[in-house]
Design a protein that fits this description.
Blueprint lengths: L3 H12 L21 E8 L3 E6 L4 E7 L5 E6 L2 H13 L8 E2 L12 E10 L2 E8 L5 H15 L2 E2 L21
Parallel strand pairs: 5-7
Antiparallel strand pairs: 1-2, 1-6, 2-3, 3-4, 4-8, 6-7
């Protein structure tokens, strides 16, 4: 049964005319393009989380704020992770900007996660790409969405983790009138 992560990747391959069978695990088990880690960080005014993915499927998570608290270590499905590693390795990462944002201002509810960072590590070299308000190339958006999906499907060593990316509901008794 396909997972949401593999379905998202399949859709991306269809839209970009890529062949899925050319992406995935390498024969020598070396990460594509020498990428040794991928990371995602999402932050807002009162909440944030970050996760680092190793090529073997190990994921390290840390979060703070309502619905995101805690630190965990777990495992994710390796095939979609390696497909993303391959996709990034085949892409011209130098053509990507360091930061993307829309030319408009947005107003958010308290607790909204409006900034995202994609981290790509190759040995000692680290590339960080910022996406504000969901802006960015399709490659950046797919990479962030796929990492979030993998994070949602991770198997955690300790108690399960449910990541609530939506702003916490405000207690109506506490609202100012």
């Amino acid at each position: 049964m396909p997972t949401p992560a593999s379905e998202l990747f399949h859709l991306y391959c269809q839209q970009t005319n890529r062949r899925e069978e050319t992406l995935g695990l390498s024969r020598d088990n070396k990460p594509p393009g020498g990428i040794t880690a991928l990371g995602i960080e999402r932050s807002g005014t009162t909440r944030a989380y970050c996760a680092t993915f190793q090529p073997d499927g190990t994921v390290f998570y840390a979060g703070e704020g309502s619905g995101l608290e805690g630190e965990r270590t777990g495992k994710v499905e390796v095939a979609p992770l390696w497909s993303l590693l391959q996709l990034l390795a085949e892409s011209d990462l130098n053509s990507l900007a360091d930061s993307y944002q829309y030319a408009a201002d947005f107003i958010y509810e308290s607790g909204t996660l409006f900034d995202a960072f994609l981290l790509i590590q190759s040995g000692a070299e680290k590339r960080v790409i910022k996406s504000s308000d969901g802006a960015g190339t399709s490659l950046v958006k797919v990479a962030l969405d796929l990492l979030d999906l993998l994070l949602d499907q991770a198997v955690w060593e300790r108690k399960p983790l449910i990541i609530n990316r939506n702003p916490p509901l405000q207690d109506p008794r506490r609202q100012k009138r």
